[in-house]
Amino acid sequence: MMVFNLFSYPVHLLLTHGYAALFVWSVLEGEIGLMLAGWLASEHRVFTYSGVVAVAMAGAAIGDLLLFLSGRLFEKRAVAWLEAYPEKKRMAMKWLKKWGPFVIVFERFVYGTHIPVLLTIGMSGYSFLKFLFFDILGIVLWAFTFVSVGYYFGHGAIDLILFAQKNVFVVLFFVSLFALILFSQNGDNR
């Protein structure tokens, strides 16, 4: 099976170490880990759906709090780290100013933005309680989304996510093309 060939080591880790491996994976991010654990739960191997969601949310919450607090408490080090990635720092600041709380809710769905966005939010002086509220909302959406994708769609969904992450520009092209067609049709209906 394709999932076992491509993800043999991650699947082995999940099968061997169960929820502990999933927890660590969730602290570090881990959409693929959530989908794999969701898929394993659907196969009745090691995990349950509700267990995967709960552990993923706990791990993600701890990881996010550590990143936010690192930005808040170790601002100089966070700035130094972000200076190595100036485009991500600019993007995080722009997004935060433009979309505010929506960035906190949805940043984890955009590959490669998690760490810079949370460090930037921590450094920005953003209210901790507001951050916590919107972060928990985002974590719940994230956990249910990726666990459900793995649970209900299995290895086909994992292959699609990997393709999308590796071919971001191809995906953006088709999304843009679809949006252009949709908007042009709406313009014709006026």
TrEMBL record:
InterPro entries, sorted: DedA_domain, VTT_dom
Domain of life: Bacteria
Residue span(s) of domain VTT: 34-151
Transmembrane segments: 7-28, 48-69, 99-119, 131-153, 160-183
UniProt keyword list: Membrane, Transmembrane, Transmembrane helix
This protein's name: Membrane protein
